[in-house]
Amino acid sequence: MAKKGNMTARVLKSLKSRPEVKTPIATEMFLPNHSGDHSAGRVLKTPSKDNDLVNKSYVDSEIASAVTNRHDTWSNVFVTRVNTQSIPNNSDTKVEFNTVKNDTLNEWDEDTNYRFECQTAGTYLVMARVFFSSVAWTSGKFAQISLSTSNHGTIRISRTITGDYTEFVESKGFTITELDAGENMSVLIKHNRGSTTNIYSVDGFSYIIIIRIR
Fold first, then answer.
1. What is the fold of 76-212?
2. Fewest C-beta atoms under 10 Å: which of 22, 80, 103, 113?
């Protein structure tokens, strides 16, 4: 009687000696198209359900629309002072920023009132700098910038304390504030040097930047 192990070995050897037969499932494969900007399959131009897939054209147009709308309809202001302005001692004086570099919504009045006239209520980032000509200062004097708003009062954003020197002195700072539609805002500069002091008369050294951020 043959042993079981020998029988199993003969069967395995017989199977290995036979050529393997491969049966093709299909010569081609087709996958349904439910996305992409192709013409085949079910492509949705505008999704109607949370899990709907959309085509590339829809996504591209949505992104472009969001970027364009934010840039064109939100405040972005950059204005400078290009000539000198005399600032009296110890008195809040409006800085007459008179050269518009950028103003997306035409909200800055550079001809008469020298102020920002807000069109849309929101949250605004405001940065300002006033740069004085080189004169003699004594220790403990100051130069400070404030924002004067029609609805939110006066907001001080910077105060520079001087030493004993003859030098250019600047005051600069930033703040984030709420503004209402129709509200106006201007920049005030004040110092106590003891006599009238002039703003430096070179474009770009004194400026205000206003950007709506929300």
1. Jelly Rolls (2.60.120)
2. 22
Lowest mean pLDDT among 50-59, 94-103, 124-133: 50-59
The residues spanned by each domain of the chain are 76-212
The answer to whether 107 and 77 have CB atoms below 8 angstroms apart is yes
Q: What is the pLDDT of residues 157-175, one digit of tens each?
A: 999 999 999 999 999 999 9
List the alpha helices (DSSP H) in 33-191: 56-73
- Distance in angstroms (rounded) separating the CA atoms of residues 73 and 66: 11
Residue 6: band (very low, low, confident or very high) from pLDDT cuts 50, 70, 90: confident
Q: What angle do CA 171, 175, 178 make, to 5 degrees?
A: 140
* Cβ atoms 128, 147 nearer than 8 A: yes
Close Cβ partners of 205 (under 8 Å, ≥ 6 residues apart): 80, 81, 129, 131, 170
State whether the Cα torsion 49-52-58-59 is positive or negative. positive
